[in-house]
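Example record used in the benchmark description.
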Amino acid sequence: MSVEEFRLEFDGMPDPLVRGNARGTWRERAEATSVLRDTTYLLMLERRPLPRFQKALATYHAYWCGTPLDRDNLIKGCKPILDEIVDVGILPDDGPDYVDIRTEYTRVPHRRDVKLVVTVRPTNMDEIERILRPEE
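Model output (structure tokens):
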């Protein structure tokens, strides 16, 4: 991992209850969202100190086996992750003025290899230079 990016790795894909085609009750969807946000927070605790970006590119890289999630369901499933990234202060907001989203897919041979990697990196050179050359 380079100094200008922030990376989180999750085992598996987001719970189907969090994704766009969820068929569960409101309570079930809220619980699945809460679990994903808590998992994200715990992963971020391992990465301290946390960076701060004004504008960033978030890449959701799905390592899949079987049938891949379509792009909109992957983005919807990662919304709680992005919300938690905003809540801890890495980004000021998750609107289009602050974050661009990209998806990538890699097929893996076994279900045990299925994972999701979320990478957040600044999108402007001033931001990268600020990180590389802290105030002197």
